[in-house]
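idk why but the lab printer keeps eating my pages so im just putting this in chat instead. protein + cobalt (II) ion:
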Amino acid sequence: MVWTPWDWTEYPAAQQPDWPDPVALESATKELSSYPPLVFPNEVRSLTEALAGAARGRAFLLQAGDCAESFYDHSASSVKRRLKVILQMAVVLTYSSGVPVIKLGRMAGQYAKPRSSPTEKFRDLELPSFRGHIIHDDAFDVEARRPDPQRLLQAYDISAATLNLLRSFTKGGFSDLSQVHNWNQEFVAASPEGERYEVVASEITRALKFMAACGIDLGAERALGQVDFWTSHEALLLGYESALTQQEPNTDSFYDLSAHMLWVGERTRQPDGAHIRFLSGISNPIGCKVGPKTTTSELIDLCSILDPKQRPGRLTLISRMGHNQIREVLPPLVEAVRKEGFPVVWACDPMHGNTFVSDNGFKTRRLEEVLDEIKGFFEVHRALGTWPGGVHIELTGDDVTECLGGSAEVMMEELDSNYNTICDPRLNAKQSLDLAYRVAELLIDN
Ligand code: PEP
Ligand code: CO
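predcted complex ->
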């Protein structure tokens, strides 16, 4: 059957909100369809090309950002802090391992969340679970949790504003490699991770001076002055995604122009479901989460639907197994995908299989377990001779206390001191840098 952007409506769609007013939803969606694209097909294609490099073992994907972005947290300084930590991690990875790093934010559109349970309870009140600011508010009261279609338009506006900032930060002077010291945030600089980063930054500055002294015109080198930074989010709310999908003039290709890359979550990737139907027809690079219960036949089905032409860069499989399972469950999946010839990027999400609730009631993760899952991921790929193509991390540029551990250790009893996430616990800037160093070491040993 010929694919169209809206034909997913004929398939079962998991994790969609109960919109109370279908007429209001239709009118918001119609308005959204008339808006200009947030990203452009040529940018999307350049990400596919970069990912093709990772599929061939010549690049490494760093996909990172909030679990759920907040409508209340898109100030220039907040966006800049998130960008800084991702740029820092990329510098550490590139400088230490010599492998080009693809920088892909979970940013400028990550507003919809799948939930394990449709409702949540606090004391005597049971309400619909929080599904992201694109749907409703996170406050725990009946009115706040009512899905409001006007939020689709707000999500578009905030994405546009965030993308505008990202474009100016990454294409203007801020991302110039000569600014490498300025990406170290004040509260990080004095920490062991920050000091270690300063050493790398100073070496880069020295190398730049050396090149300038040799007569190389650094100002003319685009790669030193600008950064390619792409955006991604979970393609969960299908009406929003379809409304922003357009056919490229004079071609057969459709692009979902809400972000460069879209991924499908663990709870919505049924091969015969609406999400996979939608993603199968767009030309963007696609990510697919792969949890510990995935069977090889299900995974091969997904690869066949999402990447029938076996094009490098089209499909990134994001494993999220949990640190104590990855070494057993990942190898048969990697082998099956290789045997069938799918040139995927394998990336490791070490966050979602390692979440637990602490004794004092906080959803959290241990940095040590996060790092152990990444180590297991590298071990599996090394044993099979395949390329560990990237990591997928939930982080923030702020000094939060949401995940346990790190060299400036966050202890269980400190979790409540700066626990700000509206969904899953994120690594803070120091823990993120720590992780980048550990990944760099694994890449060097690989
Ligand atoms: C997520 O990436 O925030 C998420 C919900 O992941 P998963 O679908 O892997 O559970
Ligand atoms: Co999450």
